[in-house]
Amino acid sequence: MRFPFRSMFLTSPFEGLQQHAEKVNECAWAFQQAIECYVSKQCQTFEELRQEVIRLEDEADSIKRRIRGHLPIGTLMPVSKFQLFRYLREQDGVLDAVEDTLDWLSYRPEPGIPTALEKDFLLLVDAVMDPIEELTKMVREARIYFKSYSASQRVKVKDIIRLLRQQEHEADKIEHVLKGRLFNMTIDPVSIFHLIRLAEIIGSIADHAENAGDMMRAMLAK
Amino acid sequence: MSAEYIVLIIGYIFGFYMAWNIGANDVANSMASAVGANAITIRQAVFIAAVLNILGAVFIGSHVTNTIRKGIVSTQVLADPHLAMIGALSALLAAALWVSFATWKSLPVSTTHSIVGAMIGFGIMAGGFKVINWGKLGAVILSWIISPIFSLIIAFILFKIIVRFILSREQALTAAVRLSPLFIGSACFVVVLSFLFKTPLGKSLEMDASVSLALALAIAAGLGFLGKSLIHRFLVCRAKATVEEIFRRIQIGTSCYVALAQGANDVANAIGPLALIYFLVKTGNVGSKVPVPIFLLLFGGAGIACGIWMAGSRVMTTMGTKITTLTNTRGFSVDFAAATTVLLASKLGLPVSTTHAAVGGVMGVGIARGIEAVNFRIVLQIMIYWILTVPAAAVTSMLLFLILRLLI
After folding, report:
1. Mind listing the pLDDT tens digit for each residue in A72-105?
2. How far, in Å, CA of B315 to CA of A103, rounded?
3. One-character DSSP codes across B200-253
4. Cα Rg of chain B, angstroms
5. CA distance B271 to B268
6. Residue-range domain boundaries for chain A
């Protein structure tokens, strides 16, 4: 058979983007479990959950590599290749930050999080969970938009991006309060360092999600 | 005399084989977008393509045959009927061989280019380099570059119009229904026009150009609004309409349009040399103007239809799984651009490749940001192969000519 017509169609990178976003979403669940486990102080499954996240991160990485490796020069897409790569980097950043958080926790199994701060940390984790979920939704809706170019669909995606921005802002506020309280506690400096850094890494999950949203906004530009 | 009949029989066989090849391989280029976008099933595609290729070949197909045969190679080579017959046969065999080789190796070559190359080879052998009308050849080669670009531009503009005036509107559906007569009508316009200007039947009506234009316009407008009312009746009123759904229906029409254009254009690749052999055998000499008998066009069309029938569904299954990112609006733009390009080119008597017109159409939609990922580099590959095809077919044809001259 000889058809140039067929070899023109490449595997869509959006397919991969969506799979990648779903991996991020899958990770989120294990991440939340792991944190709750860590906070509860009688945790048996933390390491197991961390390994699960590492495994998912690995799978997501190979999806990322596949997307990057299969867009030859001269590929025409609805968005520029580099916008797509920048977006992918931010989406991957979410996952990296999730993994980093668990890694950071694993360095210091004892003494865990002070009881007074448990609530704040869980609040912060909750605050960064929402953006992760929105991310998957955003990719799905954006893909529909690039197919339909419908005005209302575009508004829908832009709404998600706005929501991501607000959620990041919320997470920031929680992080801010948490850090303020941390420095006013009388605990050992090493713990302070560990917890401050922990709050920052968790906070960065929402940052990356927001950045991904901003990149998506750039891709939507007419 | 008997040797000549043997040549004629071999001519029939290889003419049929070429036609079969066009049907088997190239049908995918015309129907794949419709199948990929789920506008029609593979079964329907096979049926539509087979029937309309025959219709296109028989009713719109005669003009191009002349150009391939007489335009590039001067009629001087036809002075010796025996030599001309051998030449036509070797050209046909050479093109068939090259196309088979390309099919075997999956090279994206065009049957049109193969036959043109082979005819050049024959011309050089029969009368030396001076019989080749280089100016005409240049024009033909230029048309190979222009036709995908033309198709690209049409597809680009069409898809941009669809995005701008339909998809991105608040009331996308209403806009789609409102503009549907325009899309249906313009497709009908080109078909009617090429029918009126080119076919023996159309010419026998003996109408002025302006009258023809007016008539085509009227028919197109009529069919356009008929299409709109059908869409309104069957989709909008039953409340299952989406923009893509509307274009799905229109795309059924445009895939017919492509099949028709393909039959009209490509039949010449198979039966051009065959018509020459036929004429030489039947009359013994060639006049300045050689009519192509209708039954030969029918023969070519039937060959294409056979190819579609036997290999079409397999080819289209392969294509259908690959082209899932094409929606109906995109498929419509590609089909429309390709068919319009091919019909206009074949009206001008230029042997262009249907495949390349379709490729140009996909590129146009790709540039208009309509497809998730299209490989633009295929254009380079195609260019390399048409640069290769012409000399390769020409040299093969020359060699065959030498061999056949010794034998017959």
Report:
1. 888 888 899 899 999 999 999 999 999 999 999 9
2. 51
3. HHHHHT---HHHHHHHHHHHHHHHHHHHHHHHIIIIITTT---HHHHHHHHHHH
4. 21
5. 5
6. 12-220
User: How many CB atoms neighbour CB B270 within 10 A?
Assistant: 34
- Tell me, yes or no, if B167 comes closer than 8 A to chain A by beta carbon: yes
Q: Is B163 on the interface with A (CB under 8 A)?
A: yes
Q: What is the per-residue pLDDT for A205?
A: 95
Residue A184 amino acid letter: N
pLDDT digits (tens, 9 = 90+) for A183-211: 888 888 999 999 999 999 999 999 999 99
Rg of chain A's alpha carbons, rounded to an integer?
A: 20
- Rounded to whole angstroms, how far apart are CA atoms B192 and B213? 9
A194 touches A108 (CB < 8 A)? yes
Inter-residue contact A4 to B378 (CB < 8 Å):
yes
Pick the CATH number of A12-220 from 3.20.20.140, 1.10.150.120, 3.40.50.12230, 1.20.58.220: 1.20.58.220
C-beta atoms surrounding B89 within 10 Å: 27
Contact B297, B267 (CB under 8 A): yes
Residues in chain B: 408
One-letter amino acid of B1? M
pLDDT, one tens digit per residue, over B61-100 is 765 555 555 567 776 767 777 888 888 889 889 998 898 8
Mutation for testing the A interface, residue in B174, B375, B383 having most A CBs under 10 Å: B375
Maximum separation of any 2 CA atoms in chain B, in Å: 73
B-chain residues within 8 Å CB-CB of A154? 168
Contact flag B25-A3 (C-beta cutoff 8 Å): yes
Kind and range of the H or E element at B392? helix B378-407
Residue A222 DSSP label: -
**Cβ separation B376–A77 shorter than 8 A:** no
Q: Does B371 touch chain A (CB under 8 A)?
A: yes
Interface list for B 224-243 with A (CB within 8 A) = 243
Among the partner residues B172, B356, B373, nearest to A150 by beta-carbon distance = B172
CB contact under 8 A, A149 and B168: yes
- Average of per-residue pLDDT across B17-23: 88
Tokens of B40: 């029609």
A6 to chain B, closest Cα gap in Å: 6
Give residue for tokens 């003009």. B63
Q: Would you say A20 and A60 are in contact if contact means Cβ atoms under 8 Å apart?
A: yes
* Total count of residues recorded for chain A: 222
